[in-house]
Known about the structure:
33% helix; 5 strands; elongated; alpha+beta; DUF2116 family Zn-ribbon domain-containing protein
Amino acid sequence: MRTCLECSEKLVGREDKKFCSDNCRNAYNNKINKDSNNFMRNVNNKLRKNYRILSELNVDGKSKATREKMINKGFDFDFFTNILQTKTGNTYYFLYDQGYRPLDNDYYMLVKKEI
């Protein structure tokens, strides 16, 4: 006998069915995908906030912004997802597909990686 992975109710229907309802499916997946501790949750929140700020400042896919403007919006330069070193020696810091590179006079080049 097959049972729901969330509430253990008997399953009726398709042979590969795992949940008795959408509510049970959502509850099960929310538990599995929940950030396991406060540290992880805080880091993920900072990454999301930085991503939103870059997306807001970089609507056209390539633009410039001052460090002060980014910080005033709440950007935290300590949190990014990866670093890209170009052949010309430039270093880009990325938050998923949104990136930035320091320029002169506290300006930053903002770019969006095409994926």
